[in-house]
Amino acid sequence: MSTILSSSEIKELRRDFPILNQKVYGHPLVYLDNAATTQKPSQVLEVLDNYYKGFNANVHRGVHHLSQVATDAYEEARKTVADYIDAGEDHEVIFTRGTTEGINLVASCFGKAFLKPGDSVVITAMEHHSNIVPWQMICEEKGATLKVIPFDENGVLQLDKLDSLLDDSVRILAFTYVSNSLATVNPVKEIIAAAHNKNIPVLLDAAQAVQHMAVSVRELDVDFMVFSGHKIYGPTGIGILYGKREWLDKLPPYQGGGDMIKTVTLEKTIYNELPFKFEAGTPDIAGAIGLAAALKYVNSIGLGRIHDTEAALMDYAMEQLQKVDQLRMIGQAKNRSGAISFLLGSAHPFDTGELLDKQGIAVRTGHHCCQPVMDIFGIPGTVRASFAFYNTAGEIDALVAGLQRAARILL
Amino acid sequence: MATEHISNQTIEEAQQEIIDEFAFLTDWMDKYEMIIQMGKELPAIDEKYKVPENLIKGCQSQVWLHADFKEGKLIFTADSDALITKGLVALVVSVLSGHTPKEIIASDLHFVDDIGLKSHLSPTRSNGLLSMLKQIKHYAIAFNTLQH
């Protein structure tokens, strides 16, 4: 049996995503902005609806029936996430608002506990702003230095520089699994092992990875990992921070409030244990349950099939885009996933994106929250088409035709 | 040297002309082709005015706007690194350039709405367009004050 979804299977799966079936400016919507956010299947929307209609209540607090049902569902969601990323225990899974909050949490709490003047933090030059700015902020506060692993003209990390960058001053390494602007898939296992070899813990930004490939935190032996629910067919406003218990126990709490405490007197507060220590206030209960529904949906199709289907679609897109005169790809790593970044001749990416939009084709344009990446290439931004398993070869053809029409106007 | 845009039309007549031209175009791609064509016909800004001080804030692409004051009239020249933006800039310049500060201050710019552009522009572009209109009115107010 083929591991690639057939066109009739994709057609059937698209029925789970009613939003895809609409016209934009008179053209059928071609949604190729999945790296920004994915669409949500009915299976997720129904779970959200059921929660609010059937068992909305605050969690971990009430003695009453609804609160118990909601708490069970919320904690069951944590278990689903733990299983999905192969965490050793459920309590290593912290619900956050998203990737950005997860990185801010680690940067802030890790920085508070472990960074001092003269120390350094290492990131790469292909990070999303959300994996740059929180580290800059904490480094500035603590008098530490931010060091950067560069990448080459193909968008591949220059790992020959890794050994010298990971010197005695480095307290933590934070980097992305898959680049959101270049689509490069980094050799994560190798990099983590190199850091661990020097006793340096690692935070992995898996926002562009977990929806495309199986990720096991135990196999990677990663210390912290973050991702967002909305990029994996779940609701917005929910995300995950995974941390090894040994590390999470060592970090101070992030925010103070309800749920994160064991006892409070006006003189002294005793903090709660994992995971509640990092979940102050009423969490996004619906979001957590919705995210679990999304992960179950992905599992019902099979991550392996999703991966193979998307890889085949990427290959088809790369082959078909050759037909567009003056199209140049930005980021040519051999191992890429989920997206193609490109420029159309000398046309400004906004112009290309806007003319695609008027033909019903949704892509992202601009710097993709990676201004340093654009600076390295000396460009204002790129056009990025990013894929999900529900995209079809026909949609790639529409993209190619749309680009050819835009090229006739712009070039 | 920059070519100047001197208009014999009133601001209202210029707006009406644009509205009429766009009325014939039903497909959005055709409208955008027209906008881009207008951009190509925009009188070039003198390179020396493409400086950071002349950049319009609030535009994602770069837009430079320069104002000259000649014989009581404001003459605008502009440029952008993006073609659609340049076209939109050209529309605004063709309507407002060559008029007195008073006329510009008093003008009611309705053509962007009338040709249906406002609701179809991406939010960042439409914000950029508003920033540009605001900047032009600022110039007009400033030169009007200087005159008196």
What would you say this structure looks like, in words?
The complex is a heterodimer of chains A (411) and B (148). By secondary structure, chain A is of the alpha/beta class. Chain A folds into two domains: 7-31 and 303-410, Alpha-Beta Complex (Aspartate Aminotransferase, domain 1), CATH 3.90.1150.10; 45-299, Aspartate Aminotransferase, domain 2 (3-Layer(aba) Sandwich). Chain A contains 14 helices and 17 strands. Chain A has helices at 7-14, 42-55, 65-84, 99-114, 133-142, 162-165, 188-196, 217-220, 245-250, 285-301, 303-321, 349-357, 371-377, 393-410; strands at 23-24, 27-28, 30-31, 93-96, 120-124, 145-149, 170-176, 202-205, 224-228, 239-243, 261-264, 269-271, 327-329, 339-344, 361-362, 364-366, 382-386. In chain A, strands 4-10-9-8-7-5-6 form a seven-stranded mixed beta sheet, sandwiched between helices. A four-stranded antiparallel beta sheet of chain A has the order 13-14-17-16, covered by helices on one side. In chain A, helix 5 links the parallel strand 5 (120-124) and strand 6. In chain A, helix 4 packs parallel to helix 5 and helix 11 packs parallel to helix 14 (393-410). Chain B has 148 residues and is mainly alpha-helical. Chain B has a single domain (11-147), classed as Sufe protein. Chain: A. Chain B is 51% helix and 11% strand. Chain B has a two-stranded antiparallel ribbon with strand order 1-2. In chain B, strand 1 (63-70) and strand 2 form a beta hairpin. In chain B, helix 1 (11-23) packs across helix 3 and helix 2 packs across helix 3. The longest helix of chain B is centred in the last third of the chain and has 25 residues, at 123-147. The radius of gyration of chain B is 14 Å and the shape is globular. The N and C termini of chain B lie far apart (30 Å). Chain A binds chain B through residues 25, 347-348, 350-351, 354-355, 357-359, 366, 380, 405, 409-410, and chain B through 28-29, 32-33, 36, 60-61, 81-85, 120, 122, 124-125.
